[in-house]
């Protein structure tokens, strides 16, 4: 039996097809070009002396001995770099009233977290630089430390920034309806306080940078392991006073990023300054401990939430307070309040209720900064909402699927606006719930759970619906004054041999950006994918654009490529029409050949058109100028964000004597609109889920009372490993966005968004027979045993 | 200089490869406190990279033939100090005569580390969270030490003194560990509770029991990750000797643990929780031991 033909059966139909990433083989063969591997002639190495104190005054710094050490080229303090670098402030205008202290590469007179870089040494090699660090003496005078969030909020308590009125960075409130009224008349109210620990990205390759300032040309080249080369080109230019066109940022292969590598780090800014001071390339690669104490952390929220329901289980209202502590500064240039802002705006998003009130308070403390990391705010919003829904279901005696099916926005009710002002074009909660129910064999799992409970085995089943923000417009950063682009650019050329090169502003971090761009270009132009070469990540070569953040590569970058490819195709067919004496509309391109649009009969290879246009333009009609390079920019219009949705489910087992949790199986039904490459989409979901499961059970940056990170190594900070990870079963629903021709939305954060919520619900389901509950992520054995009162 | 300049961060040191025990002891004596023996390097190298240790001289002992090999010597199995963790899994003599070490080995780190880490290094380091040092206690093993004053054998019971402190004097070398041969009337069990496979355990335990029909004639129970050093649960042992492994005596042994273990304060695992986990683990292991293990 043969399956019916689909659009995938026509030649060059790459959109919707599972294809391996063309760059995977190169990376697997060890041919990656990571910044960590880079060695330039005359290159020197930087190392940083770090503050042992969470908050202290710098009284004096003695560097003579370090300077005298053989092999040391430069010892620089905050004052040295302040002479050439202007300060930065991590605020955005649309977050009204937010404050943050100005920052410099290295501090002048005060350290504000343990691990902050204080003095830089540049030497012939890293070991010598580290030797020199041991010879530097810094005298500190302790200042009161703000670690705990409650202490930070106390009136008259110690201040992170002496001289300010409080430790509050930002406050925000949403009040969309008659919340008090709804609670007063509700048949049922559930209430809980849920805490979310700090965790961090733990990329395989740590942060890495090589800054190379050429004083003769007045040119700065920075090889930077970042997701956003254009943003850094702009920042290095403005803070070091070098014209933008003379700053080149090259971001080639990068060993993981997850949002962590799009922020300004003090060391990275310092390294640029060190190279300018020396006129030589300077390299810095964070080691693992440095990564733990200086990479951004994420989460760290405490959310108090209430939900009101009527007697039938209809959600009426939610009321939440989110307190989040972000470290000593707000991160530049994207700030540290976006996560909290997204938490309060995404809570309740899948559901129909209209009455919503939320307060967000963002607080300074003496720890490293938090900022955007994969699924910004989503896991918190999702866990809070979905825990409330499960608590309500228990209270009302409803099944978790039933209460969700009853309350989600129906699939036929779009467009919709959420009580927090988010506009949803089209989501598919009902379809996803229905699909998940079958996919996980829900009835079967429940029967098995009941059977095993009789034998003292406690399994839990959890589900969590979610909404994800993707394809952001300038509403995200641009309106706040940040020079962070939400558009992308592509330059597509037909080469003289009839192949295609695509230079595009979205970047590749291993997720397959280059793969899907080549699929889209090949599909739209009508040629084999291997004849499309995609080039990314070099501000000197690729056009300016947003690059990679917030799930935008496929949705925005993909649309840019699609439109650029279509424009090039028009130009190719115009020349072909002249040569073949046809109307362009009568022609098409299939598999690298110009064909008759109607009959598909081959007319001539596009390589022949390229040959004529490049080498025998004399044979074209007079006045013809072949345009075989096309540049195109695309900025999202219409909806400010393309929301996606989905639902996750999991099954796990709690050992009620040890508190250890075994994940048995994880499920996701996801709707990211048009799926360009199903294999890559599934990889994104799996990777995202694993990161979410790490957050749920293992990952936490733990601090002592004196503000010291106590588990800054991979022996103590637990990341998810294969042995503990369950099989992940994936299904899709496709609701393309009508805002673009491509119809793709983002998918990179969907897995992380709901995985921890799912586990939280499942653990509480498992603990239900004991009347015990956990309300804190990560769910450690300690928390489980405490809930069970086992010690 | 042709190493990757960014990767090497340890302080500079000299390196000496010893061919014999005497050479190694000699080199150490001449360098004074500023030398370290290096075996598998799986604990020492991270410490050097972190600059937690910065000796002037590393003495490589991995080429000393006398520290290698596994063989029977009378009532003992002699396990050379350089025996690697992975060999505990593959050597038939270990499986036959020291099966408790064979059972513990899969829980020690991951294959890459087991391929290099050595038994002698693990015992010398005496990490209280390590599997093998604790198992030498359960096995009533003897540690053979070579030093300036010659050779001596120290019982495991006397070897582990305090946190990373042992009967080894500075400059002394562990040459071998002697384990009494496993006998037909003996049974053993081993297990640990860890959040991830291969991690240092929250609590771990191994034991070796000699049975007279269904009654316990003798038992040695050893815990790790419960305090400053590997710890024998002598009160629990006493609660079991002379009895069968029934629910009542298992409960008595679990209760007795309070007298054996005093877990330290810890920000993540409070002492009371660790004691609870030790009891749970002990109960499960004794259950398995009763079933024949
Ligand atoms: C990621 C990771 C995970 C790990 N997980 C575990 C685990 O789960 N369980 C566990 O038990 N271990 C674990 N280890 C440690 C590992 O087992 C080490 O191999 C072991 O602790 C030390 O053995 P070594 O041969 O590597 O010693 P080295 O690192 O070479 O030396 C360690 C110390 O012992 C001294 N020394 C070595 N040999 C002798 C000798 N013959 N006589 C006197 N002194 C000597 C050295 O001078 C040094 O001070 C882990 C290590 C790593 C890197």
From TrEMBL, chain A:
Keyword Lipid metabolism belongs to the record: no
Keywords, in A-Z order: Molybdenum, Oxidoreductase
InterPro entries assigned: Ald_Oxase/Xan_DH_a/b (IPR000674), Ald_Oxase/Xan_DH_a/b_sf (IPR036856), Ald_Oxase/xanthine_DH-like (IPR016208), AldOxase/xan_DH_MoCoBD1 (IPR008274), AldOxase/xan_DH_MoCoBD2 (IPR046867), AldOxase/xan_DH_Mopterin-bd_sf (IPR037165)
Entry annotated with the keyword Oxidoreductase: yes
Protein origin, superkingdom: Bacteria
Boundaries of every Aldehyde oxidase/xanthine dehydrogenase a/b hammerhead domain copy: 29-144
PANTHER family: ALDEHYDE OXIDASE 1-RELATED, XANTHINE DEHYDROGENASE
Name by which UniProt lists this protein: Xanthine dehydrogenase family protein
Organism listed in the record: Bradyrhizobium diversitatis
């Amino acid at each position: 039996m043969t399956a019916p033909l689909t659009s995938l059966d026509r030649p060059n139909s790459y959109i919707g097809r599972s294809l391996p990433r063309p760059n995977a083989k190169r990376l697997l063969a060890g041919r990656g070009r990571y910044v960590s591997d880079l060695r330039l002639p005359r290159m020197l190495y930087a190392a940083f002396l770090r503050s042992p104190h969470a908050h202290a005054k710098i009284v004096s710094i003695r560097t003579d001995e370090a300077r005298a050490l053989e092999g040391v080229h430069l010892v620089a303090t905050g004052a040295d770099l302040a002479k050439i670098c202007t300060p930065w402030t991590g605020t955005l205008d649309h977050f009204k009233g937010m404050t943050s202290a100005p920052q410099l590469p290295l501090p002048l007179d005060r350290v504000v977290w343990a691990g902050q870089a204080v003095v830089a040494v540049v030497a012939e090699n890293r070991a010598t630089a580290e030797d020199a660090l041991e010879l530097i003496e810094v005298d500190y005078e302790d200042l009161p430390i703000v670690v705990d969030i409650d202490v930070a909020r106390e009136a008259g308590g110690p201040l992170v920034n002496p001289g300010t009125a409080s430790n509050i960075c930002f406050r925000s409130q949403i009040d969309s309806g008659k919340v008090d009224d709804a609670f007063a008349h509700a048949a049922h109210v559930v209430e809980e306080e849920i805490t979310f620990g700090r965790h961090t990205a733990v990329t395989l390759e740590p942060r890495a940078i090589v800054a190379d300032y050429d004083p003769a040309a007045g040119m700065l080249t920075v090889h930077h392991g970042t997701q956003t080369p254009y943003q850094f080109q702009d920042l290095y230019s403005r803070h070091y006073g070098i014209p933008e066109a003379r700053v080149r940022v090259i971001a080639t292969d990068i060993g993981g990023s997850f949002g962590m590598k799009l922020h300004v780090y003090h060391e990275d800014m310092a390294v640029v300054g060190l190279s300018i001071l020396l006129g030589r390339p300077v390299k810095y690669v964070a080691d693992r401990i440095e990564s733990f104490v200086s990479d951004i952390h994420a989460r760290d929220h405490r959310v108090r939430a209430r939900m009101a329901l009527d007697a039938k289980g209809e959600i009426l209202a939610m009321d939440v307070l989110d307190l989040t502590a972000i470290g000593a500064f707000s991160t530049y240039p994207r700030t540290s309040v976006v996560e909290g802002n997204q938490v309060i705006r995404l809570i309740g998003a899948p559901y129909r209720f209209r009455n919503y009130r939320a307060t967000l308070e963002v607080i300074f403390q003496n720890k490293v900064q938090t900022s955007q990391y994969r699924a910004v705010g989503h896991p918190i919003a999702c866990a809070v909402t979905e825990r409330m829904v499960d608590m309500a279901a228990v209270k009302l005696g409803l099944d978790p699927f039933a209460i969700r099916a009853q309350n989600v926005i129906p699939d036929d009710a779009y467009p919709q606006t959420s009580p927090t002002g988010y506009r949803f074009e089209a989501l598919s909660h009902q379809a996803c719930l229905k699909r998940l129910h079958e996919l996980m064999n829900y009835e079967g799992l429940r029967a098995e759970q009941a059977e095993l409970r009789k034998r003292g085995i406690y399994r839990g089943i959890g589900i969590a619906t979610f909404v994800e923000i993707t394809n952001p417009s300038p509403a995200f950063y641009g309106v706040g004054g940040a020079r962070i682009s939400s558009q992308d650019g592509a330059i597509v050329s037909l080469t003289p041999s009839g192949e295609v090169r695509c230079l595009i502003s979205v970047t590749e971090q291993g997720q397959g950006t280059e793969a899907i761009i080549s699929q889209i270009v090949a599909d739209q132009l009508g040629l084999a994918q291997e004849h499309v070469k995609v080039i990314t990540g070099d501000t000197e070569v690729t056009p300016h654009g947003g690059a990679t953040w917030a799930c935008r590569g496929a949705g925005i970058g993909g649309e840019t490529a699609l439109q650029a490819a279509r424009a090039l195709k028009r130009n190719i067919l115009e020349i072909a029409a002249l040569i073949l004496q046809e109307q362009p509309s009568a022609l098409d391109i299939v598999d690298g050949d110009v064909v008759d649009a109607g009959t598909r009969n081959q007319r001539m290879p596009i390589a022949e058109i390229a040959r004529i246009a490049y080498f025998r333009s004399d044979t074209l009609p007079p006045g013809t100028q072949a345009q075989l390079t096309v540049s195109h920019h695309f900025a999202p219009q219409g909806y400010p964000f393309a929301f996606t949705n989905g639902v996750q489910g999991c099954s796990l087992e709690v050992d009620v004597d040890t508190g250890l949790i075994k994940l048995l199986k994880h499920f996701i039904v996801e709707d990211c609109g048009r799926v360009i490459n199903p294999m890559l989409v599934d990889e994104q979901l799996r990777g995202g889920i694993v990161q979410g499961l790490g957050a749920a059970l293992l990952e936490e940056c733990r601090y002592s009372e004196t503000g010291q990170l106590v588990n800054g190594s991979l022996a103590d900070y637990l990341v998810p490993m294969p042995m503990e990870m369950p099989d992940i079963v994936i299904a899709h629903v496709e609701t393309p966005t009508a805002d673009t021709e491509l119809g793709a939305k983002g998918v990179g954060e969907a897995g992380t968004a709901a995985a921890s919520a799912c586990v939280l619900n499942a653990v509480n389901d498992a603990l239900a027979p004991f009347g015990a509950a956990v309300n804190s992520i990560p769910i450690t054995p300690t928390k489980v045993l405490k809930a069970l009162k086992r010690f | 200089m042709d190493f990757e300049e960014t990767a090497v961060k340890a302080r500079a040191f000299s390196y000496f490869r010893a061919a014999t025990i005497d050479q190694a002891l000699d080199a150490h004596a001449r360098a004074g406190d500023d030398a370290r023996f290096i075996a598998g390097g799986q604990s020492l190298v991270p410490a050097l990279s972190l600059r937690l240790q910065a000796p002037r001289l590393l003495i490589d002992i991995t080429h000393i033939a006398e520290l290698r090999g596994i063989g029977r010597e009378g009532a003992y199995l002699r396990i050379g100090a350089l025996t690697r963790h992975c060999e505990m899994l593959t050597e038939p003599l270990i499986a036959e005569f020291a099966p408790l070490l064979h059972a513990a080995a899969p829980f020690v780190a991951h294959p890459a580390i087991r391929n290099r880490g050595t038994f002698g290094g693990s015992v010398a380091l005496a990490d209280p969270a390590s599997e093998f040092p604790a198992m030498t206690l359960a096995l009533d093993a003897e540690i053979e030490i070579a030093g300036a004053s010659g050779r001596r054998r120290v019982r495991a019971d006397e070897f582990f003194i305090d946190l990373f402190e042992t009967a080894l004097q500075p400059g002394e070398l562990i040459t071998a560990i002697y384990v009494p041969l496993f006998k037909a009337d003996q049974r053993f069990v081993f297990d640990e509770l860890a959040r991830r496979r291969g991690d240092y355990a929250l609590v771990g335990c191994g034991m070796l029991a000699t049975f007279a029909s269904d009654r316990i004639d003798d038992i040695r129970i050893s815990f790790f990750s419960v305090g400053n050093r590997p710890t024998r649960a002598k009160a629990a042992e006493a609660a079991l000797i002379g009895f069968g492994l029934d629910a009542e005596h298992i409960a008595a042994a679990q209760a007795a643990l309070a007298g054996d273990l005093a877990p330290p304060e810890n920000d993540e695992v409070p002492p009371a929780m660790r004691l609870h986990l030790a009891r749970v683990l002990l109960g499960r292991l004794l259950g398995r031991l009763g079933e024949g293990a």
